[in-house]
Amino acid sequence: MRAAVLIWEADPAGLLEAWNGAELAIVVDSAVSGAEPGTVRRFDASTGPLPAGPVGSTTHALGVAEAIELARALDRLPRRVIVYCIEGSSFATGATLDPSVERAIDETVERIVVDLVRRPRPE
């Protein structure tokens, strides 16, 4: 099994190339949906489109949800795609990390480990 961790700060459209050939992609992104800062939402994008509301807005021309749907339309979506969205508190330049968001990051890492341990093996 080949594994890679990428910190992707560029336009999400580039994810199509980044996960090319992958069986599983786990994406973690910030969200601005109006939920409490530090709220973590998990979506299995393998089964269908991400819901519009909870994923929130993006500062990119193309968001993660749109990149996933583009990959799906082009038949370039990994077999499994799990998306975690962490509700942010402030996106201002120089803003410090809110303690609730910091705790949410730790929680998300733990949940990703569970996803990796429980993931179905290729047939």
Walkthrough of the structure:
With 123 residues, the protein is of the alpha+beta class. The protein has one domain (12-118): 3-Layer(aba) Sandwich (Rossmann fold), CATH 3.40.50. Helices cover 31% and strands 17% of the residues. It has 4 helices and 3 strands; from the N terminus they run H-E-E-H-H-E-H. The protein has helices at residues 15-18, 52-55, 64-73, 99-118; strands at 24-31, 40-44, 80-87. Strands 1-3-2 form a 3-stranded mixed beta sheet, with helices on one face. The longest helix is centred in the last third of the chain and has 20 residues, at 99-118. The radius of gyration is 14 Å and the shape is globular. The two termini are 13 Å apart.
Determine the structural class based on helices, strands and strand pairing: alpha+beta
Instruction: Based on Cα principal axes, name the global outline.
Output: globular
| Named CATH topology | Rossmann fold
- Enumerate the spans where pLDDT stays under 50 for 5 or more consecutive residues: none
Strand content: 15-25%
Q: Gyration radius, to the nearest Å?
A: 14 Å
- CATH class categorisation: Alpha Beta
Strand order of the largest sheet: 1-3-2
